[in-house]
Amino acid sequence: MTPEELVVVGTITLPGTPRSVAYARSFLRDLLPPGDPVLDDLVMVGSETVCNAVAHTASGHAGGTVTVTLAAGCGVYRLEVADEGADGARPCPRPENGAESGRGLRIVKELSLRWGFHEDGDRTIVWAEFPSPWTSGDMTGACRASRDEKSKVQSGHPDAFVTGACHS
């Protein structure tokens, strides 16, 4: 599935601070229908990838941001988390070694259908896909995505902006 075949359900840009992980979880939870079978897995992967962006990239430096996007179509949800770069370092799952940290990308791999990343200049965009009951046509009726429409996010974070989100 290419990103061009998907409908953007919502996008949020948050400050690169640890507290933004909770705002990202809330944002993603609000975008999916209650009871969606992948809701918990998608929210967990969003939490892990935002946490990684804040902890391991320039997004976590003063003034840094992290952007979370959820798109859907043709039976798939696609979660994307864009960071501000890590001096050329790219995501790489660590082998299990019994450490208390380093499990994030293994969690992403296990909970998603597939995952990966692509570069956008210095930035890295980590993506993960999950099964969805929606098709592109269904999503346009349920949530009309507009990349130009911006409003304050309902999660309550004063520095967050959301694009094209679904609100019930």
Taking the sheet with the most strands, its summary is: 7 strands, antiparallel
Mean pLDDT level? 77
Strand order of the biggest β-sheet: 4-5-3-2-1-7-6
Question: How would you classify the helix and strand content by structural class?
Answer: alpha+beta
Helices and strands, in N-to-C order? EHHEEHEEHEE
Which outline best applies? Answer: globular
Using DSSP, what is the number of strands? 7
N-to-C terminal Cα separation, in Å? 27 Å
Number of helix segments? 4
- Strand residue percentage: 25-35%
Short descriptors:
globular; 168 residues
Short précis:
The protein is of the alpha+beta class. It has helices at 20-31, 39-56, 104-111, 136-142, and strands spanning 7-15, 65-73, 76-82, 114-120, 123-131, 150-152, 161-163.
Summarize the SSE layout with pairings:
Layout: E1 7-15, H1 20-31, H2 39-56, E2 65-73, E3 76-82, H3 104-111, E4 114-120, E5 123-131, H4 136-142, E6 150-152, E7 161-163
Antiparallel strand pairs: 1-2, 1-7, 2-3, 3-5, 4-5, 6-7
Please tell me about this protein's structure.
By secondary structure, the protein is α+β, with helices and mostly antiparallel strands. It has four helices and seven strands; from the N terminus they run βααββαββαββ. It has helices at residues 20-31, 39-56, 104-111, 136-142, and strands at residues 7-15, 65-73, 76-82, 114-120, 123-131, 150-152, 161-163. Strands 4-5-3-2-1-7-6 form a seven-stranded antiparallel beta sheet. Helix 1 (20-31) packs antiparallel against helix 2 (39-56) and helix 2 runs antiparallel to helix 3 (104-111). The longest helix is centred in the N-terminal third of the chain and has 18 residues, at 39-56.
